Amino acid sequence: MTPRSHDAACVFCAIADRSTDARIVAATADTLTFLPLAPVHPGHVLVTPRAHVRDIWELDGNTAVAVGTAVLRAAHAVRAAHGAEGLNVIQSSGAVATQSVAHLHVHVVPRFREDRMPPLWPESREEDPRLLDDSARRLRVAMAALPYGRETPGPLRGPVSALRPD
Questions:
Q1: What is the mean pLDDT of each run of 10 residues along the chain (166 residues)?
Q2: In the list 12, 109, 132, 152, which could disulfide-bond 88, CB 3.0-4.6 Å?
């Protein structure tokens, strides 16, 4: 799917076109940084592309650079403004990954000792080395098949099965 400049049903597009209010803290030609309606704690911001991009798989290289730059600026601002001791940068794509708004967004969440954020990772367990080796091999094949860098004109297209080494 090609990114659209606006989706009338999308709340983040409504913020971008100013038909819905938000506490915007930074804006560029390509991105917005604003407070979510229910932040984890002060300093928690969202960074979104202005154009409607549903998820990371729909993201093109130029927009990725713009979003990444805005996330980096937000990270520095969060630490300067709120004295964050740590930081989580969270981007979820797909409902199974808890994406609640179908418009790409990155949470920049300041972290403090004893804050109310739960652990993000399950306890580690030892994996079968053969499964890890197979995963690494599959990923190397998939990475080699991808277009490289900012030259990518748009999101990757084609069936995922075309990237499988089997």
A1: 70 93 95 94 95 94 96 96 95 92 96 86 83 88 73 49 44
A2: 109
